[in-house]
UniProtKB/TrEMBL annotation:
UniProt cross-references to PANTHER family, sorted A to Z: ABC TRANSPORTER PERMEASE PROTEIN MG189-RELATED, ABC TRANSPORTER PERMEASE PROTEIN MG189-RELATED-RELATED
InterPro entries tied to this protein: MetI-like, MetI-like_sf
Similarity-based family: Belongs to the binding-protein-dependent transport system permease family.
Predominant location category: membrane
SUPFAM superfamilies attached to this UniProt entry: MetI-like
Domain ABC transmembrane type-1 residues, every copy: 87-278
The keyword Transmembrane helix appears for this protein: yes
PROSITE patterns assigned: ABC_TM1 (PS50928)
Official protein name in the record: L-arabinose transport system permease protein AraQ
Transmembrane annotation, as ranges: 28-47, 86-110, 122-140, 160-178, 199-221, 256-278
Domain of life: Bacteria
Assigned GO CC terms: plasma membrane
Amino acid sequence: MKMDATAEGDLYFSGRIKIRQVLLKSGMYLLLSAIALTFLFPILWAISSSLKSLGAVYEFPPTIWVSEWRWSNYPEALRKLPFLNFMLNTVVICLSATVGQVLSCSLVGFAFARLRWRGQGFWFVVLLATMMLPGLVLLIPRYVLYDALGWINTYKPLIVPYWLGESAFFIFLFRQFFKAIPQSLEEAATLDGATTWQIYWHIFMPNAKPVIATVAVMSLIQHWKDFMNPLIYINDMDKFPISVGLDLYNSLEGSWINLLMAASLTALAPLVLLFFLAQRYFVQGLLLSGTKG
């Protein structure tokens, strides 16, 4: 009898624990779903506005529901302004700057991770300290420099600096990843007569695909959505990237909020697709870049 009572008690407490776990997990999912909807609400509102007429966008009280679906807003937004030209300019700037940033930051990261030179630790601290310097502080000095070089109203201020290791954060990511690569690979290559450049290019870079993908995605997103720099350095409308071109929907011939939302979502689509395609490498690169100090 005692054993039966003990078994029944164990089953009772086991059942209560399972019910508590189910309730806790359900509550956690509900909370996370509510947070996700909060973050997704601006996107849902943009989608809703892109499918409304201009009058419906300004209705009061505002509503997210669409009474009359206007899919014609999307082709109209592409025709209203030279949208495809803006996108082409953006692709040229982003690809040129991203390739330069990956190559230059990987080189500097390799130098900090594997080479031994005087003052290495000091200069690495100085490099990290530059991350605390606001970009606006350098805005006027950079403009004066680029104006003296004759670079204003060209893409050079948006591309050339990124071929010179401009991002301290990306250098840090490469340095951390390269430090985690086994020393034996480098020693074996040295015994085979490989030079420092060959070790970097043929051993470290092929093994750095996760961090390369991480830096490439983050760099591409950074340049794609950059608004301040093109606004300052580019004057001609036919040279505008999409970040500056989208603002024209809100200022040229009045405010076209529904077309602005349609054009914004179209411009956002390549970034969303890129992130999902590179997500595995992106997460892996961030994790592996912090495995060794």
